[in-house]
Amino acid sequence: MKHTTGIHHITAIVGNPQENVDFYSGVLGLRLVKKTVNFDDPGTYHLYFGNEEGAPGTIMTFFPWSNAHDGEIGSGQVGVTSFVVPTGSLSFWKKRLDKLNVENGEMNRFGEKVLAFDDPHGLHLELVEREEGEPNTWSFGGVSTKHAIKGFAGATLLTGKPDSTMTVLEEVLGFIRVAEEEDFVRFKSSASIGNTIDVKKTPMVSGRMGSGTVHHIAFRANDFNDHEEWRNLLEEKEYGPTPVVDRQYFNAIYFREEGGILFEIATDPPGFAKDEDPDEMGKKLLLPPWLEEKRPEIERVLEPANARVLEGDK
To answer: Per residue in 75-88, pLDDT tens?
Structure first.
């Protein structure tokens, strides 16, 4: 049976792009690894944050619109995105969030202490300590490599048909059911990060896309051949996958599972150093070849959005 190693990336819709960068880079210390545009809407940024290399399993991506209407979190979405930090780091992160006036709270789930908070546009986020996962060698502002976010811990799925969603996770994507606690079922994959999916067993009211909601969650394909095998499998199981889409830094296919969540399968290669020096990633606007001739027009409509150290860290 095929299985994905885990989460490749998670993509969300947010508001003002500089506020987005200030939070994920300035507050959370993630690297802005790629500043490009939404290929389907070139007047909008597509911003990618992750570890120093922008490795699969670390990438949170955003479509920021300053005038976007507020979304509603509900069924058919990722309800919570969880990041993993080194063991012993939660006290640092609580102090940091308190210092930067980010409201937060502690809870326990599946035997793990969790620090929960929202980003400025309403996305529900969590930090959890785990031994597994390679350290992040990127440091920024007040976040050193000792405490830096390693990547994803996992995600919580809100679905209109929990049994159907769990069937896809187990019987199509190859996750293993490992635990059940109150209203959640936990599934794991083989990767050391981005390996945990929790599914809420109770259907919620349907969500509405907009600022503060997750657009889709992507799972990993090892390479281009593996990706084609995934597409064939999804066709055989009648999930109606899209044709392969070239996203420059990975190839993608999409399908919507019966619970309403948009799933993507994305290739690990070629990665974010494809079109710029690894040391320079995220510093300038990168466009795909077919949009390069429109650069002046695109740059004219995009608002400034740059990684910068926050005043509280100077």
So the answer is: 999 999 999 999 99
